[in-house]
Amino acid sequence: MIAIWVPARLSVFSRTQVSQITSWKRPSELLPSFCIFSSSLLPSHITQGMATDCSVIASFAVCLEHHVRFRSKLGISALYPQDDQGIPCLNPSGRYSVRLLFNGVNRQIDIDDRLPVRNDNRLACASDRTGVHLWPSLVEKAYMKLNGGYDFPAMHPKRLNTDLREDAGRRILTVLNPWSDGISLVSGSSSEADSQRLVTDNGILVVDWDDICDNFDSIYLNWNPAMFTHKHVFHGTWPTTSKTVGTSLNPALNHTFRLILEDLPNSVSPAENSVWCLLTRHVIDKDDSDTFIALHSFSTGANHPFESDIRSVNRAYSNSPLVLTRISPDKDAKQISLVISKQGSLDVETRYSLFVYSLGSVRLDDIPERLLHSVTIHDSLSTRTSGGNSSYPTFMNNPQYHLQIKPTAGSNTGVPVRCTVQGSKDVPLNIMVVWSGGARVTDITHGDIALESGPYNYGLAYASGVLTAGHYTLVVSTFEPQMQSTFSLTVECPHKFDLEALPLEGAGMFLKTIKGTWRGRSAAGPSSQGGYAANPTYKLTVPSQTQLQFRLQMVNPLSRPSINVSIFEDPSPVTGGDVINPPLAHSSGYTDAVSGAITSRQTFGKGRYVVIVSTSRPNVEGAFVLFVYSSAVPVSIHLKE
């Protein structure tokens, strides 16, 4: 319980407000007649005082409108004492209590009925235009007490919708301006009848729905938790933590839960099967805008639709104290992993509450912070290593790691594995664990994936499931290439395992990068078409014996013709369009792989060679890039004239 607020001084106001406020007075000293609440109080009667609490006033009006329509007592029943009908009533002592849901639980805020008065002897707080009802003034006082005073930070919305109707096929929205000196306004496209009717409706604005869409960024909707039959609540804390090498990435700031779907309604409607998860950050400092939170959801142990995951990105972090995630589980889903994360304000302990609402039976389990064995690697996504999702040829450049799950004596069953990557809150991330023998991978198909985090998710990706003993490749990727971030990768398992970074393709080798195009005559196609010599041809000079490897890629990932790169001895092996000698090295036939065509790593002696790049069909135009890796010495390569 919070003590009675005795405003003996005016420090609860800003400097500007103090200059216009003379005193605090009881209603009997200010109003000829008054009551707490009656059915005559309407949303349009509520006016905003000197506090910049437009969002609070908007909430009052919405509560009143809801009560007028449905007799719900929404917001009205928060003020005590009450009569036998549950309506707030006068207390001769001038003392009242207000019930407010704050930081995850209901709080009782005790106040008296003294209200701030301006120089012109008018109320400086929220009030009733008719000067009769005290409900808005008293509830606002309790809320301002909870927030430390009337010096309240301005928040959206500055106006609110009170009615949406259709007039002759035209959708019209009625908007309330709660300022005490509000004026009547009608948008330019509104009817003359509307304009005449609203001349005396103080603070009312009638706007076409199209005008609303043109001039407002968003609409905020409230929802009633009582529409759900099941509810779970968890209260927790993000502890203070030290920074790690210039980042705010710390596994202690990620709390993981398992949502067990026990008995959801057997309905084809996603809305009826959905589970709503609400994360609330407890507010200690109302001016805190540096703490960002997120509520991530991942299907646990599920096979995600690979192609759709490439196109989807989940929500970002928010510095709002409330984050709502609506989850529509797949029909066969049994459980979902929830990860709640915090970034920023590392030196401040932050408490939170997690609410889970559903129409069917679910269970919320707190997953232990760590499995027996855990390895964390700190790494970065740079311009070189941020390759984007698997639809890009640069996917192969993403950070990759050899994951070896050690066999357990006397057991061939799989073991649980959890993988978490956390990076910048502005970068969407993904984790894939791939069957590959532990080698670096270049192209991914759905059948290659042993474990995956699902859709790309801002700031954090999480994958959990069961893996058998063996060698795997773990890939951390961004949604688009060139998205840069430091990140921490944590892998956990109850059994021993090894995790080590895999070198990039061509690591430790000299690199030459050649850009070119197939266009017009140079789009000659394969040797069987008779014009092979017209394809882009490069002269390669090797100064001494070295190992070489060649990779050919399309620049545009949407253009995927089958391509080939072949290396011949010089002089030119082509006469009249026919190949005289077989190539010394080549990519295996023609391929349309996203990563392009690559040769094996082979030894070349000192000398001159010819490199020809081609497509499987003539007249296929497009830009390409050719990478030439050399182990011992740099080589010279240029386009043959």
Characterization of the model:
Residues 23-169 form the Calpain catalytic domain. This is Calpain catalytic domain-containing protein. Belongs to the peptidase C2 family. PalB/RIM13 subfamily. This protein is mainly beta and 641 residues long. It folds into 5 domains: 15-146, no CATH class; 160-215, no CATH class; 225-366, Sandwich (Jelly Rolls), CATH 2.60.120.380; 385-501, Sandwich (Jelly Rolls), CATH 2.60.120.380; 510-639, Sandwich (Jelly Rolls). The model is unreliable at 1-6, 156-162, 182-190, 193-201, 244-248 and 302-309 (pLDDT under 50). The strands form 11 sheets. Strands 21, 23, 24, 25, 27 and 29 form a 6-stranded antiparallel beta sheet that branches. Strands 30, 32, 37, 38 and 40 form a 5-stranded antiparallel beta sheet that branches. A 5-stranded antiparallel beta sheet has the order 36-33-39-31-41, with no helix packed on it. Helix content is 9%, strand content 39%. The longest helix has 17 residues, at 54-70.
Distance between the termini: 87 Å
Mean pLDDT over all positions = 85
Tally of discrete structural domains: 5
Q: Any idea of the CATH class of the largest domain? A: Mainly Beta
Fraction of helical residues: under 10%
User: What is the makeup of the main sheet?
Assistant: 6 strands, antiparallel
Question: In terms of per-residue confidence, which ranges show pLDDT below 50 for 5 or more consecutive residues?
Answer: 1-6, 156-162, 182-190, 193-201, 244-248, 302-309
Structural class category: mainly beta
How much of the polypeptide forms β-strand, as a percent range?
A: 35-45%
Number of strands: 41
Q: Which overall shape is indicated by the principal axes computed on the Cα atoms?
A: elongated
Q: Do you know the CATH topology of the largest domain?
A: Jelly Rolls
Gyration radius over CA = 34 Å
**Count of helix runs:** 8
CATH architecture of the largest domain: Sandwich
Active site: 54
Protein name: Calpain catalytic domain-containing protein
InterPro entries: Calpain_cysteine_protease, Calpain_III, Calpain_III_sf, PalB/RIM13, Papain-like_cys_pep_sf, Peptidase_C2_calpain_cat
Keywords: Hydrolase, Protease, Thiol protease
